[in-house]
C-alpha cells in the first residue's frame, strides 16, 4: 500500500488533518473522528504495518507504551474512571483502516458501551484439545 492510499499514513505525513494528543519518534495519538465516548483516541505507529500479523513485537510494544501513556493522559484530563483498549486485525475482526492501531476508549459509565461478546463459561477441561492445538503452532 502506498502512503497516499492510507488515511493514517496521510495523517502522519501531515497531509490529512487530525487532532493530535501525543507524538513521539515511533507513534502518534490523535482523537478519533468517530467518538464512541468523549476522548476516544487512536494510537498509530509511524511506520505502516497492515495489522497485528505485520507489526514486529518491538513495534507493537512501542504502540502499547504509548497506549499506557495516553490512557493516563485521558484519565487525568477527562476524569474517566475506566479505559478500554481495542484492536482489530482483519475484516472479520471489524478492522476498517488497514494500518495497525489501537483504540483507547475512555469509559464513564457501565453502559456507555455495549460489550462485543457475552460471557459463557465452559469447563476448563473441555479446552485441553484447543490449547494443545494452539501450542502446536508455536
UniProtKB/TrEMBL annotation:
It comes from the Bacteria. GO terms for molecular function: catalytic activity. InterPro entries: Histidine_triad_CS (IPR019808), Histidine_triad_HIT (IPR001310), HIT-like (IPR011146), HIT-like_sf (IPR036265). A motif (Histidine triad motif) lies at residues 99-103. This is HIT domain-containing protein. Signal peptide: none annotated. Residues 7-115 form the HIT domain. GO terms for biological process: nucleotide metabolic process. PROSITE patterns: HIT_1 (PS00892), HIT_2 (PS51084). PANTHER family: ADENOSINE 5'-MONOPHOSPHORAMIDASE HNT1, HIT FAMILY PROTEIN 1. It comes from Nonomuraea cypriaca. The lineage of its organism: Bacteria, Bacillati, Actinomycetota, Actinomycetes, Streptosporangiales. The active site is at residue 101.
Amino acid at each position: 500500500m502506498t502512503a497516499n492510499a492510507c488515511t493514517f499514513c496521510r495523517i502522519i505525513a501531515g497531509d490529512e488533518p487530525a487532532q493530535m494528543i501525543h507524538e513521539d519518534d515511533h507513534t502518534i495519538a490523535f482523537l478519533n473522528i468517530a467518538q464512541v465516548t468523549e476522548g476516544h483516541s487512536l494510537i498509530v505507529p509511524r511506520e505502516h504495518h497492515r495489522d497485528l500479523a505485520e507489526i514486529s513485537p518491538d513495534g507493537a510494544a512501542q504502540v502499547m507504551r504509548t497506549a499506557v501513556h495516553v490512557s493516563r493522559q485521558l484519565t487525568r484530563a477527562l476524569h474517566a474512571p475506566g479505559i478500554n483498549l481495542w484492536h482489530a486485525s482483519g475484516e472479520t475482526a471489524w478492522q476498517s483502516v488497514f494500518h495497525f492501531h489501537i483504540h483507547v476508549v475512555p469509559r464513564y459509565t457501565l453502559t456507555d458501551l455495549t460489550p462485543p461478546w457475552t460471557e459463557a463459561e465452559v469447563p476448563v477441561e473441555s479446552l485441553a484439545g484447543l490449547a494443545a492445538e494452539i501450542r502446536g503452532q508455536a
